[in-house]
Amino acid sequence: MYFSGSYQNIIITHHQQELHCSIEQDQELKRLICHFSCKDQDLYALVAAFDQQPEFLIKRIISFAKAYIRIHNVEKLELDLQHCLNNPANNQIII
């Protein structure tokens, strides 16, 4: 698995809630960084992982999503996030 670009937006929808994940690749720090927002408001939260280890970023995104929008189907979310990171055209996840 690899991150397929320098910037990507993913929307996670659970019931009526949407969590926006803006993922960017910091070349200088060699990290993937994900900022979160909801309804166009910055949540002032981020998670990060080394750019060679996107699976750690996925685990951290899941951890935040579980707490913020109370997602219980972690396995499906993990597979969907992997798919989105590998296929930038697919940026919508419905749980």
Are there runs of 5+ residues with pLDDT below 50, and where? none
Which radius of gyration do the C-alpha atoms yield?
12 Å
- Helix tally equals 2
**Can you give the mean pLDDT?**
89
Largest sheet features: 5 strands, mixed
Secondary structure category? alpha+beta
Protein described:
The protein has 95 residues and is α+β, with helices and mostly antiparallel strands. Helix content is 31%, strand content 41%. The chain contains two helices and five strands; from the N terminus they run ββββααβ. The chain has a five-stranded mixed β-sheet with strand order 4-3-2-1-5, covered by helices on one side. A hairpin with a 4-residue loop joins β2 (17-26) and β3. The longest helix is centred in the middle third of the chain and has 16 residues, at 54-69. The chain is globular and about 35 Å long.
